[in-house]
Amino acid sequence: MATETTGGTEAAGMPQLEFSTFPNQIFWLVIALLAIYFILSRIAMPRIAAVLAERQGTITNDLAAAEELKLKAVEAEEAYEKALADARAEAHQIVAEAKAEIQAELDVEIQKADAEIAAKTAESEKAIAAIRESAAESVKEVAKDTAKELVAVLGGKADARTVTAAVNARMKG
Amino acid sequence: MEGDIAQMGQFIGAGLAAIGSGAAAIGVGHVAGNFLAGALRNPSAAAGQTATLFIGIAFAEALGIFAFLVALLLMFAV
Amino acid sequence: MADEAKGGIEIHPMDQFIVEPLFGDGAIHWYTPTNVTLWLFFAVVAVTLLMVVGTRGRAIVPSRSQSVGEMAYGFVYKMVEDVTGKEGLKYFPYIFTLFLYILLANFLGLIPGSFTTTSHIAVTAVLAGAVFVTVTVLGFVKNGAGFLSLFWVSSAPLVLRPILAIIELISYFVRPVSHSIRLAGNVMAGHAVLKVFAGFAASLGVFSFIPIFGIVAIYALEVLVSAIQAYVFTILTCVYLKDALHPHH
């Protein structure tokens, strides 16, 4: 390399290859690196490591606390759900009871009404039967009388008893 | 500028050596492009490989820097 | 040299990386306080502000600055745990130191007019070399000669194994190189491009708004790259550590 001969402060060639400055650069570089190394390893790195560890610890603790709170929240939710279900069941029960009561009342009323209806029906039936009876009697009377008259008109002497028996036989037959 | 053949040779040589920088650029582009192609196919694996990417780029680039250095030496140091 | 630029455009994209003494302009000895020293000091201050002052509240519910510090802690912690497993957590302070230093040095370097310590190969080589030595020593201490099984791919056919062993060995020793150049190269390239665009803006007069838009876009990209490079450096450290703890394929 030709630079070894040039040297000096003249801007000839690459300053990087100015070998006369190498010992100087190396000397100061080593000092600077040692300084940085000691600053880092004695002060900065233990401090940062401690801070990071502390933060890690805090985060872990916070996470645990959060987990606990979450569990609590889940428990509370469960209790709430249970209460809700209970209330719902109770409401159902009340509804069912009310329904049963109403049903029972309704049944009683219906029965009463049925009985009344049945009594009325029986009464009417009796009345109808009486009417029918009397109607049948009247028909018998009319038939007897008619039969007597007919016999008389035809010239016979009607025996009341025979006529009645004949009419009765006819009415039955 | 009168007929200094040696100086002309220096300059021509420096210019030729500078071509090497372009070649290194091709190399670096190749590395990065292939990395991107692979990363798009499998994005989940890409994050773990960026260190490899940079090492590859560094190796490709170092040789280009050597060419640049030769150019500098020819220009300034010979 | 490109510095003898033509056509009126004077761009010195590499000037921002020059190491110079803070006081006077004598020779740079190994103990001379330089702009590297200043910005490394700022990185230490930034780490202190973020991780010590920001977390002083020790609150369970973190303040804004405390949660940023905790996020960074948790991010790297998870990364180490995912990649290396439980055994790797012993080395978490070491990896966290690397991550925070790279991330904050990258971001500090994005302040206009600042000096970016991570753009220097000397710096990143120390970081990557330290990782390499640590991982190799750790591998042999933990596994003894069994660590060499890392290179003996037992799943490959027997004929191929010696060839694979050579390839694995080479790739093992290339690790610190790519590990360091990747970080320095990314940061350096971004800053140099910003400077080139700034040079355009200075020379275009009325039309300078076009490169200024470009600067805004590239600046945004650089913010992203700063974070990604810190992440990549850290995760590769984790991967190498995993190889040392569990060398069997």
Describe the structure.
The complex is a heterotrimer of chains A (173), B (78) and C (249). Chain A has 173 residues and is mainly α. Chain A has one domain. Chain A has helices at 3-6, 22-154, 160-172. In chain A, helix 2 (22-154) packs antiparallel against helix 3 (160-172). The longest helix of chain A is centred in the middle third of the chain and has 133 residues, at 22-154. By secondary structure, chain B is mainly alpha-helical. Chain B has a single domain, classed as F1FO ATP Synthase (Up-down Bundle), CATH 1.20.20. Chain B contains three helices and no strands. Chain B is rod-shaped, with a radius of gyration of 18 Å. The two termini of chain B are 18 Å apart. Chain C is mostly helical and 249 residues long. Helix content of chain C is 65%, strand content 0%. Chain C has helices spanning 35-53, 64-84, 92-109, 121-143, 161-204, 209-245. In chain C, helix 2 packs across helix 6 (209-245). The termini of chain C are far apart.
Please state the CA-atom Rg of chain C, rounded to the nearest Å: 22 Å
Top CATH class of chain B: Mainly Alpha
- Give the beta-strand count of chain C: 0
Order of helices and strands of chain B: HHH
Structural class of chain B: mainly alpha
Give the assembly state of these chains.
heterotrimer
Find the count of extended strands of chain B (DSSP E, 2+ residues): 0
The major β-sheet of chain C equals: none
User: How many separate structural domains of chain C?
Assistant: 1
- SS-based class of chain C: mainly alpha
Largest beta-sheet details of chain B: none
* Mean of residue pLDDT values of chain C: 87
Kindly report the greatest chain-chain contact and the residue count on each side. Answer: A-C, 40 and 53 residues
Q: Hey, roughly how much beta strand do the residues of chain C contain?
A: under 5%
Query: How far apart, in Å, are the first and last alpha carbons of chain C?
Result: 49 Å
Portion of residues in beta strands of chain B equals: under 5%
Cα distance, first to last residue of chain B?
A: 18 Å
Give the name of the CATH architecture of chain B: Up-down Bundle
Keywords (chain B): ATP synthesis, Cell inner membrane, Cell membrane, CF(0), Hydrogen ion transport, Ion transport, Lipid-binding, Membrane, Transmembrane, Transmembrane helix, Transport
InterPro entries (chain B): ATP_synth_F0_csu, ATP_synth_F0_csu_sf, ATPase_proteolipid_c-like_dom, F/V-ATP_Csub_sf
Subcellular location (chain B): Cell inner membrane
Pfam family, one (chain B): ATP-synt_C
